[in-house]
Design a protein that fits this description.
- The complex is a heterotrimer of chains A (326), B (262) and C (382).
- Chain A folds into two domains: 4-184, Rossmann fold; 207-324, Rossmann fold.
- Chain A is built from seven helices and 18 strands.
- Chain A has helices at residues 18-34, 74-87, 99-111, 221-231, 239-243, 274-277, 309-324, and strands at residues 4-8, 11-12, 15-16, 37-43, 60-65, 90-96, 117-120, 122-124, 131-136, 141-147, 152-156, 172-177, 188-193, 207-211, 234-237, 264-268, 285-289, 303-305.
- Chain A has a seven-stranded parallel beta sheet with strand order 7-11-6-1-4-5-12, with helices on both faces. Chain A has a five-stranded parallel beta sheet with strand order 15-14-16-17-18. A three-stranded antiparallel beta sheet of chain A has the order 8-9-10, with no helix packed on it.
- In chain A, a hairpin with a 6-residue loop joins strand 8 (122-124) and strand 9 (131-136).
- In chain A, helix 2 crosses helix 3.
- Chain B has two domains: 3-220, HUPs (Rossmann fold), CATH 3.40.50; 232-262, no CATH class.
- Helix content of chain B is 29%, strand content 29%.
- Chain B has a nine-stranded mixed beta sheet with strand order 11-10-9-12-8-1-6-7-13, sandwiched between helices. In chain B, strands 2-5 form a two-stranded antiparallel sheet. A two-stranded antiparallel ribbon of chain B has the order 3-4.
- In chain B, strand 9 and strand 10 form a beta hairpin.
- The longest helix of chain B has 17 residues, at 36-52.
- Chain B is globular, with a radius of gyration of 21 Å.
- Chain C is 51% helix and 15% strand.
- In chain C, the strands form three sheets. Chain C has a four-stranded mixed beta sheet, covered by helices on one side. A four-stranded antiparallel beta sheet of chain C has the order 2-3-7-6, with helices on one face.
- Chain C is built from eleven helices and ten strands.
- Chain C is globular.
- Chain C has helices spanning 7-34, 39-46, 66-79, 81-91, 93-101, 104-115, 232-268, 280-309, 314-338, 350-357, 367-379, and strands spanning 121-124, 140-144, 147-158, 165-171, 181-187, 193-198, 209-220, 224-225, 270-271, 274-275.
- The relative contact order of chain C is 0.11.
- Chain C starts with 6 loop residues before the first helix and ends with a helix.
- Chain C folds into three domains: 7-116, Acyl-CoA dehydrogenase/oxidase, N-terminal domain (Butyryl-Coa Dehydrogenase, subunit A, domain 1); 121-230, Butyryl-CoA Dehydrogenase, subunit A, domain 2; 233-379, Butyryl-CoA Dehydrogenase, subunit A, domain 3 (Up-down Bundle).
- The chains are: A alpha/beta (326), B alpha/beta (262), C alpha+beta (382).
- Chains A and B meet through helix 2, helix 3, strand 7, strand 9 and strand 10 of A and helix 3, helix 4, strand 9, strand 10 and strand 11 of B.
- Strand 10 (141-147) of chain A pairs antiparallel with strand 14 (223-229) of chain B.
Chain lengths: 326, 262, 382
């Protein structure tokens, strides 16, 4: 039997999650290069039109059904995927590194007596052994690893792979009732509560949009708030505007405020005083917007726009709205 | 209730960590601390014992210096500790670590196992669920609230899900991994510190656990680290040229397509 | 020679350092700004039980040896000097003579509550006209029946204005100078006891320093703290070395706090296209600071070890205090230089360490007195 690569597809609101599509696109390439079969696995209740978006990537789409799969439990999900993997010569099983997959994939690995690589940022399948890359120590060190056993079980960080055009053949769709022994599933979900409308603290936010003196007046912070709202970020502020009472102390980024390390830090109208820098310089990507092309902040940023923030911010907000379909 | 807590000693978040020249190893500044998320696990276990009675035992796999985190647990108020120490444990991955821990756990009675959701050196978050699978018990990951229902022999927890929370019920024995917000870990009082300073830390090696060399450490690991690499250096700033509106649109394109932030 | 701390001491050091980082460091700036006694922090910290550090376990203490005590003094001072002074006063100077000579009733009333943080203790040596020159003490104690009557004014009393009880140095016979000195326990609420002006200090803010005025204060016989009259100076000698080494440990704590600020700045501040830590003159500063701090550390802990072993150490204790202080003063100065103009701003910490460090010059003995003593010791009687 030829080997197989499996991608676990996670869905949200009847849409496959973006990271799953990234992996389906990558899975297609891996399957082509290695001559492997390629299956996408769906678990639980869903509307079958969710397959439409991705049916040109895998060879097979398998939708497993069982009452125990109607709601996520680590035991049921790992059991079903491991059974399929055992019976289909799985060489590689991938999922996006979401809370769900990172929760049950380790159990899956133990069921298959293999290892697991969590939150990987890259796969090099062009050589033997296949290598995976993942960060440790919060990204201060990168590791390159390989598996001594099969299959490779890995969760992949979102935004690690591009979504490329699919093949031109539709996948075979298989809906399958599957058996899950009662004694395996013990967890029971009681209720799920809606996302809180409260603000995410800047120290925990993935995205922080900060404003400084360059905004000229407290009302103008509206531009920062709108941009933050569209991209799901939290609002930060420089010490200068907090001292001037434009913004609350809880939003202050800096040595005497809070230290943040988000995936994206946008600094608008902030010159880059050292104490501010000390509060955000470990952010993954920093974009600075300042009218003064010699502003210190550009020494610490990845990207810079030396222009008037009043002209830049609204256009960015609109552009994001368009691209994110809001 | 018998509660087992799994803790790991990790380098201090401020410790300097550098890749050795040949990429085959790491130069780590010798400053260690208890893994951040494990503190919540230790604290919660002690609180459960204060309310329901029983015993808290803390187990850690590590080297000689790991006694420090076990002493910290004693200072906070746990009843027993156990250090799994053996040169053969070197080079473990998540799998062999979880395997060894599960063998040590099997030697005790337990109703509940608590562990931090992930360690801040490996950032993997694998060992907790893997231990649960090895033991054949259920687990719930990233809990922010825990209620023990002694009469029904089960626990009800809040767990983190994307942008919200889920309330989950699971019978004991079970393993739970702890997330920030579960509690506020106590500062050990001097009486605890004194007790910890005087304590003898029991140890077990592979042989005591009934395991062979092949089953543990690097030999028992399923993953091999081929090499370490330093992170990409922060580049020179890329100034985005053009009229403000054009630059703004280009910035959005870069953030979404190149940096893939959203 | 094993220069290492034992595993237990290392664990203690780590634990107290983490406790300080968690509880005290976040409040240090505010304590300095407000210059008010931090009651909430005091209560929270007292609950941990560290105020009983030096006293026997049987009465609820920790029975810590001098080396362990120095570790504590160093770490807590690193967190906040103002707060540390209050804590250390309750741990050592403010309670020692009560512990040593107090009756059971006095211990019950004063020592045990002080160990729990329920009462604030202090000690009164200095007066307007006498600091180093203890023999010139003018506060008098006169026996009248079965009471002592105290008269005088004490200055520079740490937490004097809020103290529940004070150990007061007074003379029973001024003509005997040093040999007329004795310790007396004076409790809050005793008629005639009042507080004069409160002093606004350059540093160590948060410790309430003021004047204590004794106007015909009558205290019962048992409040005389001693076995015999005239032995006050001898009794001070029992803890003089520890006080000096303790001051040295405090100097280590302040130096480290400043030093770490310097490190962070050198690593992050960019000038001429590079983090300034890459430049040789900045590196030279760190080389000097690190070397002298290391030497101070060895001298302080060596002196502490001598005390622990019961070996003579008057000279070494004086040296440790002096050297660690001089090093600390250099470190806080260098760090403000490394920080450039930012070292001049209240919003950053280097200026606080610079201000706090000055108290080390006279606390535990002025350097002029210490140098005279050390010089005399090594030259000998000629």
């Amino acid at each position: 039997m030829a080997k197989e690569i499996i991608v676990f597809v996670e869905q949200k609101d009847n849409e496959p999650r973006k990271v799953s599509i990234e992996l389906l696109s990558t899975g297609r390439k891996i399957a082509n290069d290695k001559g492997w079969n390629f299956s996408a696995i769906f678990l639980g209740n869903l509307d079958e039109k969710v397959f439409d978006r991705i049916k040109r990537y895998p060879d097979k789409i398998i939708h497993f059904k069982n009452t125990y799969l109607e709601h996520y439990t680590p035991e049921a999900f790992s059991f079903v995927v491991s059974e399929y993997a055992k019976n289909n010569n799985a060489a590689m099983i991938l999922a996006g590194a979401t809370l769900m997959a990172r929760d049950f994939f380790p159990r899956l690995a133990v069921l298959l007596s293999t290892g697991i690589a969590s939150d990987c940022t890259s796969i090099d399948w062009g050589q033997e052994p296949i290598k995976l890359i993942r960060p440790i120590f919060g990204g201060r060190v990168i590791t390159e690893l390989s598996f001594k056993t099969e299959p490779i079980v890995a969760t992949i960080r979102p935004n690690s792979f591009p979504i490329e055009s699919p093949a031109d053949k539709d996948a075979e769709i298989i809906i399958q009732e599957v058996d899950i022994p009662d004694e395996i599933v013990k967890t029971e979900s009681i209720e799920v509560t809606e996302p809180k409308k409260g603000k995410v603290d800047i120290t925990e936010a993935d995205i922080v949009v900060s404003g400084g003196r360059g905004l000229k007046a407290p009302e103008n912070f509206k531009l920062i708030e709108e941009l933050a709202e569209v991209i799901g970020g939290s609002v930060g502020a420089s010490r200068a505007v907090v001292d001037s009472k434009w913004r609350d102390q809880s939003e202050q980024v800096g040595k005497s405020g809070k230290t943040v390390s988000p995936k994206l830090y946008i600094a608008a109208g902030i010159s880059g005083a050292i104490h501010h820098i000390m509060g955000m310089d470990t952010s993954k990507v920093i974009l600075a917007i300042n009218k003064d092309p010699n502003a210190i902040i550009f020494n610490y940023a990845d990207y810079g726009i030396a222009a008037d923030l009043f002209e830049v911010l609204p256009v960015m907000t609109e552009e994001f709205k368009k691209r994110l379909g809001k | 209730m018998n509660i087992i807590v799994l803790v790991k000693q990790v380098p201090d978040p401020e410790a300097i960590v550098e890749v050795k020249g040949d990429g085959k190893g790491l130069e780590v500044e010798q400053k260690f601390t208890m893994n951040f998320f494990d503190e919540f696990a230790v604290e919660e276990a002690i609180r459960i014992r204060e309310k329901n009675g029983g015993k808290v035992k803390v187990i850690s796999l590590g080297g000689a210096k790991t006694t420090e985190v076990l002493r910290k647990a004693i200072a906070m108020g746990v009843d027993e500790t156990l250090l799994l120490e053996d040169p053969n444990f070197e080079g473990s991955d998540g799998y062999s670590t979880a395997f060894v821990l599960s063998k040590a756990i099997e030697k005790s009675d337990y109703d509940l196992i608590l562990a931090g959701k992930q360690a801040l050196d490996d950032d993997a978050g694998e060992v907790g669920p893997m231990v649960a699978q090895f033991l054949g018990i259920p687990h719930v990951g990233e809990i922010t609230r825990l209620e023990v229902k002694t009469d029904d022999n089960m626990v009800v927890v809040d767990k983190v899900i994307e942008g919200g929370k889920e309330v989950v019920k699971v019978p004991l024995p079970a393993l739970l991994t702890t997330q920030k917000g579960l509690n506020e870990p106590r500062v050990p009082p001097i009486t605890g510190v004194m007790k910890a300073m005087k304590s003898q830390i029991p140890k077990m090696d592979a042989k005591a656990l009934g395991l062979s060399e092949e089953q543990v450490g690097e030999k028992g690991a399923k993953i091999k680290i081929e090499r370490y690499l330093p992170p990409p250096k922060r580049r020179e700033v890329k100034m985005i040229e053009g009229e403000p509106q054009e630059a703004a649109k280009e910035a959005v394109r870069i953030l979404m397509e190149v940096e893939r932030i959203l | 020679m094993d220069f290492r701390l034992t595993e237990e001491q290392e664990f203690f050091r780590k634990t107290i350092a983490e406790t300080v980082d968690k509880m005290i460091v976040p409040k240090a700036d505010e304590i300095d700004e407000k210059d008010e006694f931090p009651w909430d922090l005091w209560r929270e910290f007292s609950k941990l039980g560290y105020l009983g550090l030096r006293y026997p376990e049987e009465i609820g203490g920790m029975n810590a040896d001098p080396v362990t005590a120095m570790i504590f003094y160093e770490e807590i001072t690193r967190g906040s000097v103002g707060f540390a002074q209050s804590v250390i006063m309750n741990i050592l100077m403010g309670t020692y003579f009560v512990y040593r000579f107090g009756s059971d009733a006095i211990k019950e009333r004063c020592l045990l509550p002080a160990m729990r943080g329920e009462k604030i203790a202090t000690i009164c040596f200095t007066e307007d006209q006498s600091g180093s020159d203890l023999g010139a003490t003018r506060t008098t104690a006169v026996k009248d029946g079965n009471e002592w009557v105290l008269n005088g004014t004490k200055m520079w009393i740490t937490n004097g204005p809020i103290a529940d009880f004070a150990t007061v140095l007074a003379t029973t016979d001024p003509s005997l100078r040093m040999k007329g000195l004795n310790f007396f326990l004076v409790e809050k609420g005793t008629p005639g006891l009042s507080y004069g002006q409160r002093l606004s200090k350059l540093g160590c803010r948060g410790a309430i320093t003021g004047e204590l005025v004794l106007d015909n204060v009558r205290i019962p016989e048992e409040n005389f703290l001693g076995d015999e009259l005239g032995k006050g100076v001898v009794y001070v000698g029992e803890i003089l070395d520890e006080i000096r080494v303790m001051t040295g440990a405090m100097a280590l704590g302040i130096a480290r706090a400043a030093y770490e600020e310097g490190l962070e700045y050198a690593r992050k501040r960019v000038a001429f296209g590079n983090p300034i830590g890459r430049y040789q003159l900045i590196r030279a500063k760190f080389a000097d600071m690190a070397t002298e701090m290391e030497a101070s550390r060895l001298l302080v802990y060596y002196a502490a070890w001598l005390i622990k072993e019961g070996l003579p150490c008057r000279k070494e204790a004086a040296m440790a205090k002096m050297f660690a202080t001089e090093t600390c003063l250099k470190v806080v100065d260098e760090v403000t230089r490394i920080w450039g103009a930012n070292g001049f701003a209240h919003e950053y910490r280097p200026q606080r360490h610079l201000r706090d460090a000055r108290f080390l010059l006279y606390g535990g003995g002025t350097h002029e007195i210490l140098k005279d003593f050390i010089g005399r010791s090594v030259i000998g009687k000629i």
